[in-house]
Specification:
Elements: H1 2-20, H2 38-42, H3 55-68, E1 71-78, H4 80-93, E2 105-108, E3 115-121, H5 125-137, E4 143-145, E5 154-160, H6 163-174, E6 184-187, E7 195-202, H7 204-212, E8 223-224
Antiparallel strand pairs: 1-7, 1-8, 2-7, 3-5, 3-6, 4-5
Length: 231
């Protein structure tokens, strides 16, 4: 009985040894067979393009890849009190080691278009509906101005950044084959100065951190800078 057990153990060891050495393949592939399949190499696409880099070169490649993914991010516009609070939140929420002083900038926000091509103040509802019907017959789009009190409620045909642009637009409307009547150029009061917070070059990790900040504290949150071109 003992001899039979020893013989069985010996046969089992010999079978295991043969299996691990691949002697029983392909019926019984050896362990980790998938890691040694030559078919995996032949299935690679352009294996000649694979380059093994030294540690220093690999680190430089990672830095270059992160730089390539960097882009300008901004939030705003924000008023003076809001931007001070937003900067304080940035300073406490982000890691100082990866966000040194000067990582973000204040950028003056461009003022909104304050010169209007104005079709008149019409406080009475009936008169306003009649004036709106006149403008629609001329094929003109308009918006209802709600402020300031001296101009509201009034009908605005266009907004422009300068008086000259508004005068040119009005001249085109009054000189049309069916001219606009009762139009004039007016200006809105200048609003308080506004600024945006801008991070000129945020890498992928920094972009994710910025977008994770509470949007309500940053006038809707951080977004790619307007007109910015990805480097």
């Amino acid at each position: 009985m003992l001899r039979a057990v020893v013989a069985l153990l010996l046969l089992a060891n010999l079978a295991f040894f043969a299996w691990t050495r691949g002697a029983l393949a392909p019926g019984f592939p050896p362990p980790r067979h998938g890691e040694h399949e030559p078919e995996r190499i032949t299935a690679q696409l352009n294996p000649q393009l694979v380059v093994v880099l030294a540690p220093t070169a690999a680190s430089a490649a990672v830095v270059a890849a992160r730089a390539a993914a960097a882009r300008c991010m901004e939030a705003g516009p924000l008023g003076e009190n809001d931007i001070v609070a937003a900067e304080a939140l940035l300073a406490t929420a982000l890691t100082p080691a990866s966000w040194p002083a000067g990582s973000w900038l204040r950028e003056p926000a461009p003022p909104p278009p304050l010169w209007l091509v104005y079709a008149g103040r019409v406080p009475e509802a009936a008169a306003r509906r009649a004036r709106e019907a006149e403008l629609r017959k001329l094929g003109l789009e308009f918006e209802l101005l709600q402020a300031p009190p001296e101009l509201a409620p009034g009908l605005v045909l266009a907004r422009h950044a300068t008086r000259a642009e508004a005068e040119v637009a009005l001249a085109a409307l009054t000189g049309a084959s069916t001219p606009l009547k009762g139009g004039r150029v007016v200006s809105l009061p200048a609003p308080p100065a506004m600024s945006s917070l801008r991070v000129p070059r945020a890498n992928a990790d920094q972009q994710a951190r910025l977008q994770a900040l509470p949007a309500e504290a940053f006038a809707g949150g951080f977004k790619p800078c307007a007109g910015a071109v990805r480097p």
